Amino acid sequence: MTQFDQYIKAATRDNTRKAYQGAIRHFEVEWGGFLPATSESIARYLVDHAESLSVNTLRQRLAALAQWHIEQGFPDPTKAPIVKKVFKGIQVLHPAREKRAKPLLIEQLSQVDRWIASSIAAARADNNRGAELRHLRNRSLLLLGFWRGFRGDELTRLRAEHVEVMPGQGMTCYFTLTKTDRRLRGTTFKAPALARLCPVEAYLAWVDAAKIGEGAVFRAIDRWGHVGGEGLHIDSLVPLLRSILKEAGVESPELYSGHSLRRGFATWASANGWDVKTLMEYVGWKDVHSAMRYVDSADPFARQRINQMLDREDLPPRIG
Predict the structure, then answer these.
(1) What is the pTM of this model?
(2) Domain covering 3-93 in this structure, CATH number
């Protein structure tokens, strides 16, 4: 790869690039479309997949097709009136209900941490180096992911040389590129040292045991306890998380995803009095809508609030 190609590749996040490549492949290979495409063919593509793909997936496919045409110097056919009308009709007839990952709540995080702690002790007693390293890595990944509200791709891209630990206080994690860093200035996140469920303590235990001083923080470990040189692949994160939760006895582990740690922290912070502005600044959200998508209210049906208000009302007693 030339230096020119490296710069072009760096301009787009890996997740976005993979999703767009998959979308183009689906249009050309699986559906049999031709590129450059006409607005009519794209409209037919939408119609053919209106019932099998979600509105959000179709929106992503349109974005990928638009980018391909722009990058190749062709007019963007996705902006044609016929495409817009068909897509609007699909939204009306097949409204999307947003799927949300189940949040990993603080009680479940504590349950998993206790299981990992006992598993580390058992691995050391059995002199099982591979198992010990895996549990140390998983503990660090979970606690840092929760208390920092990291996305899955941020955890897999975190590098040891970009982490600075201040004993007894906390740690900073620097990323050269994040999803909301539109100006490409780099972003630094801070994680606190805590009395329990401490992400700093867990991080130090992992990198010290794995002898990681630079490169990816979270890596694969083979059966013999050898730590890989590359970071975990983003596609391995959800299966890994679900495997950990299942072994720790968390109910319905298949309902959790890479966003569960982020949602769990947002729910915990909201329930403990964090206002939306503070939460947005801490996690790195740029708009209120994004933040509220991750917060599960402690009183989702407003039952407690309404009952408290009813108790203050001067109402006649209920009969029967």
Answers:
(1) 0.70
(2) 1.10.150.130
